[in-house]
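Issue 218. Parser rejects a valid record. Input:
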Amino acid sequence: MEILMAASVPKPSLLPQISHSKQKCPRPLLLNCSRNTGESNGLSRTPLPRELGSPSSEVHQKNLKYIDDVKKEKPNDIWQLFKEAQQNIMYLNKQRLLAMEELDRVKNERNSLLDRVEQLEMKQNTNGGTGKLTISSELFLRIDSLVLNGVIGSTEASDLRRLVMDSRDGSADDLNDLIYKSDAEFLAELRQFSNKSKKNGFHIIHISTEMSPVVSVGSLASYVTGLSCALQRKGNLVEVILPKYALLNLSEVQGLREVESQFYSFFDGQLHGNRIWTGTVYGIGVTFIEPVYYSDFFSQEKVYGYSNDFERFTYFSRAALDYLVKTGKQPDVLHIHNWHTSIVGPLFWDVFVNQGFEGTRILLTCQGFDSQCLEQPEKLALCGLDPSSLFQPDRLQDNNKSHLVNILKAGVVYSNKVIIMSSLQTKGQIISALGHGLEPTFTIHKEKLVIAPRGMDKSTWDPSSDKFLPQSYSADDMKGKSLCKVALQQHLDLPEGAVKILVGCIYSSSLDGELEKLKTLIWMASRREAQFILIGSSQNPGMKKPFELFQEEVKDENVKFIDAYDEELSHLIIAGSDILLCPSFDDPLHQVPLKAIKYGTAPIAVDFADDNRFRHTGNNNAARTKISQYINSSFANMSLVQAIDEIKNNPSQWNKRIKDAMEKDFSWDSECADVHVSAYASVKCL
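Output the parser choked on:
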């Protein structure tokens, strides 16, 4: 499109200006031809007849001079006009180019804004957005506030919550209008809703110590958020109860507000006041409990790692149950996590079950077993439990240190179902050898145990919509992946070429034991003319010195080290690499293998020679998760050298392998959510 800047360009003068001043025009002359005697024949200038005006000789000479001057000036005027026209054309061309550049800039800016809007809409839709389930969560929190302020009783509150759940599918617009009404109008109109539809999903309440991005320490945070969003997308209603830490990230909490009245919970023989805060995170209703008297419990700089952790999280667990009683909530499932809220199990069955929770069941999720919390039995009385009845071998008594109680064991024993998060191990492996001392308890309660794989956040990690990539791509159109490789090579000053094999490695703080193996792998890769990139997965000052020594030993233009974590660069490395070395396929925190598969990059084990977790599986493959089965059949039995050789020697087979990988769905919405929904349905039938 051409844009002419006519207003700013002076119109060129292509013709000389005409003067309108009064001047006497020279008289016309006649040319006569005469034949007189004594004169030679020829042309002569003669004046006009008298009646036309007879000019004098002086005027005649002036006229002749004027004509000669005009003839001399005319070529000069034409040349000047030509030069002016050329200058005007050059100016117009320059303005045209500037206008086209400006138009291109506006187009690029517009496309960038449209892409950003599309990404935000996709993230909003993926995370639950502000749709029906978000509205339901906000209505639930509003009902909680009415109960705490004494406007309605717990029985009516329970009926209203059920009404909201049953009306979600057909009354979203009306429900949305209710949010902005006063308490009196809100309550009056809510009571008028009719129960027209049947309940389609479960009401699940997490009592947790982490939730991404509000408070995140380990794998629990992303699990609670990812699973909750996936469950709501499947039609369930999910809420989360958290401690109100001083270090909370509240940027993603929408509608955060403090409930005006306090509620009281039991601890150490007394009732203590708590402040309640409510809001929504990605459409999930979140309640924060803030102790008043024990305000120092959650005002520290860290989430875990204090000598009074048992007291802190026992107080929170008891307060969460007291809060549910006060608000009259009757969820289908109370979902508890790790040892930190495992005390909810015995509290629920020994103290709370007859306070309106007859239809509620308990489900425990374990992210791991290395932290179990062993305490003196008498401390159980702090939250109102009876130490004498619980300090038994088949209950809370630790299997190895018999003078102590094991809080994680309490969760296993008193839960209706126990989900163990693992992408690798089978239930049999965990029961026999991987329970960190809980193997006897797992054997007794093996029917409760369920293995679930972790999922991946597809709103952040998807090559078809990744905002950090120079070009998006998918399994159906892989051109963008080659462009990402070239962009990565340019960014790191590596020799360019899409045909070069690029090996990436995102290491963690536990890599110090793998450095020697990595050196060997780098040497093997360089012999096959492959390029190598190593980047950390987080900021870890403790790794700086060994990393620098490692870098000094390996000096090669095809090997690059990045010792500082870079979120944008990590996306580009996963997208631009052909192979991604993984210290472990079971990566609960960073999930590098799952990200690699999604981005068409082959995950290969660093410790291939010694890692037998996938090999020698025998006929026990059916007991594994789908993720485990797929990795086992595709990448677990492949070394780095084998992967490089297949890329070079059998590219068609390699491309098919990569395309098949990208088409797999290992997000939270897939196998992980399905296992949990099945577990919820199972416990509700008990």
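Fixed in the parser; the record now loads. The CA atoms of residues 77 and 344 lie 101 Å apart.
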